[in-house]
Specification:
Elements: E1 2-11, H1 15-23, E2 34-42, E3 48-57, H2 60-67, H3 70-80, E4 88-97
Antiparallel strand pairs: 1-3, 1-4, 2-3
């Protein structure tokens, strides 16, 4: 299993917008090898909320097939000309290979 982790530091008050975006239909969830995606939030900081999205893929190859797909490339081309959403303070992406699971 291969996991992509997106971490977003977001201004307070945007929980509905972030959740709505997560729940909306997208091409990624239809990509072969997509397993599931989970969205979590940590709201204990008084200045911002910290969102963590974990996207599970069957394997690294499945993720790279998605990343190279016309749908993924088009999605990024469309976003390229847009400004970063005002509510996003910071964004990072990490990837992991699962070694063990219970």
């Amino acid at each position: 299993m291969y996991v992509v982790v997106r971490v977003m530091k977001v201004q307070k008050g945007f929980s509905d917008k972030i959740t709505e975006g997560f729940l909306s239909k997208n091409a990624m969830s239809l990509s072969p090898g997509f397993v599931r995606s989970v969205l979590m939030v940590d709201k204990k900081n008084p200045e911002y909320d910290l969102y963590r999205q974990e996207i599970f893929w069957l394997d690294k190859k499945a993720f790279f097939v998605w990343e190279g797909s016309p749908e993924h490339i088009m999605m990024h081309k469309e976003k390229k000309n847009q400004e970063k959403p005002e509510e996003i303070i910071e964004f990072s992406r990490e990837t992991y290979e699962v070694l063990a699971s219970k």
